[in-house]
Amino acid sequence: MRTKITIFLLLFGILVMPVRSAFALPHTNVTDDQVTFDFPNTATFSATLSADASITSVTLEYGNVQQTCGDVIAKSYPQITPGKTVQAEWIWDMRQSGSLPPGTSIWWRWVYTDETGATFASKTQTAIWIDAVHDWQTITSGDLRLHWYGNDKAFAQTMLDAGVEGLRRNKEQAGLGTDAPVDLYVYPNYEDMKDAILYEPSWTGGMAFPEYNILIMGLSGSDSTWDSNTVIHELTHILIGHFTFSCIGSVPTWLNEGLAMFSEGKLDADMQAQLEQAIKSDNLISVRSLNGGFSELSDKANLSYGQSQSIVSFLIETYGQEKITQLLSDLRDAKPVDDALLEVYGFDTDGLEDAWRQSVGAAPRAVSAQPTSMPTPTFVPTYVPVSGAPLAVTPTPYAVPTSSFTNATPATSSKPFIALTVALVCICLVILIIFGVVILGLVVRSQNRKAGKHE
Question: For the chain, which domains are there?
Answer without folding.
Answer: 14-129 (2.60.40.10), 248-367 (no CATH)
